Amino acid sequence: RLATELALLEAMYPDQLHFAEKAREMNYRADTNALVLRLPDGYPGIELPQVLSANAGKIDVRERLKRRIGELIKGEELLDTILAIFNELVDDVGQHGSDHAEQSEQAKALQRREPDTKATIIVWLHHLLNTNKRKLALSPASSAVSGITKPGYPGVLIYTGPANAVHEHVIELKSQNWQAFQVRFESDEEWSFAHGQGVREVEAMKDVVADVG
Known about the structure:
Layout lengths: L1 H11 L4 E4 L4 E6 L2 E6 L11 E7 L2 E2 L1 H9 L8 H14 L7 H10 L8 E8 L5 H7 L8 E5 L4 E8 H12 L6 E7 L11 E3 L3 H8 L1
Parallel strand pairs: 7-10
Antiparallel strand pairs: 1-2, 2-3, 3-4, 4-5, 6-8, 6-9, 7-8
Helix pairs in contact: 2-3
């Protein structure tokens, strides 16, 4: 379970997240903001990740992050939720910067591809709650697109299939009004899901992990 969760997160944060297996430490960095978690042997299960350091720029948010983590439910995959909480704390202290180079790469990722190519895209959302947006996320124009959507905080969207159809759906979604909409991973390979064809909504990150397999 941990290996699968980390593989998915490393795909979503390819240049920001690193896991040191021997020390069981996960390091996350975005601009001047940095987080280090230790994953005890009992995670995911009876133990929660431990915060070794959490800095929003020069401000230590470790204690605030520890309190928030203490409110989470044990036994589930929680790393993406913890990253979302950390980024919220970063926003709260006014230290969150924008990476224009990354945004440029994301814009390039939403260009059309040749008709016979495939694509898989993972999108991170600050949240996905609005009923109409959830319906739109589940209803790509092409039935050839399959995927997974996870509403709540944060929202996660995964789409796979013909490249043109996948990109058109992501472009349509991106045109909506979002607090944050970021393409975190793109591949020219088509994925398969445990649920089969079509787009399915799941409740939690653990369900995303299970469906990706």
